[in-house]
Design a protein that fits this description.
The chain is α/β, with parallel strands linked by helices. The chain has a single domain (6-185), classed as Flavodoxin domain (Rossmann fold, 3-Layer(aba) Sandwich). The protein is 37% helix and 15% strand. It is built from five helices and five strands. The chain has helices at 20-31, 59-69, 87-97, 123-135, 164-185; strands at residues 6-12, 36-40, 73-79, 110-115, 146-148. Strands 2-1-3-4-5 form a five-stranded parallel beta sheet, with helices on both faces. Helix 3 (87-97) links the parallel strand 3 (73-79) and strand 4 (110-115). The two termini are 16 Å apart.
């Protein structure tokens, strides 16, 4: 039986070079089902959204929009900043959903992983992001949820995930995400 491969865009809310969220996203990609083909999509160089820019669209927006348009589904990995998502991630949502009537996220399934160095695991950011995804018509996987806490203790000096329980959770999340994507796109 031939397995379909799904093109998954990975958007990481943290821009920090040694971001725990980038490490989590990389670990997820390494543990994910083989039906997924991943592309990390950079969001840090996108100019803040303003409708004025639609008359002379920044090149970074054009490149980003093409990347979003070419994907079947999305994985969002985000830290929590002040009980919400980082501004770079919110801006990325805006850039690819505008101008009005040209929402590139529309109907494409997604999943959210949030994390924090504290115990709550980015709960507030996870739910704030889901609120925006509902409006953008991104069918977002409801279960299992992924809140990863205490991220500073999960990786070795080389950035490798060393926590077996987190590995198991990411593997289960990946299997559920594959089933979600297949259900939404069939």
């Amino acid at each position: 039986m031939i397995m379909k491969t799904y093109k998954i865009g990975v958007l990481v809310g943290s821009l920090r070079t040694e971001s725990f969220n980038k490490k989590i996203a990389k670990a997820f990609v390494d543990l994910a089902p083989s039906n997924f083909e991943f592309e990390f999509i950079a969001i840090g160089d996108l100019a803040h959204y303003s409708e004025d820019c639609e008359t002379d669209v920044p090149q970074a927006w054009t490149t980003f929009r093409k990347q979003i348009a070419s994907k079947d589904a999305f994985l969002f990995v985000t830290p929590e900043y002040n009980r919400s998502v980082p501004s770079a991630l919110k801006n990325a949502l805006d850039v690819a959903s505008r101008p009005w009537g040209q929402n590139l996220w529309d109907g494409k399934p997604g999943a959210v992983i949030s994390s924090s160095i504290g115990a709550i695991g980015g709960f507030g950011a996870n739910h704030h992001l889901r609120q925006s995804l509902v409006f953008l018509n991104v069918p977002t996987m409801q279960q299992p949820e992924a809140y990863i806490g205490n991220t500073a203790s999960l990786f070795d000096e080389s950035g490798n995930l060393i926590n077996d329980r987190t590995k198991e959770s990411l593997e289960a999340f990946g299997k559920a995400f594959l089933a979600w994507v297949e259900k939404q796109l069939s």
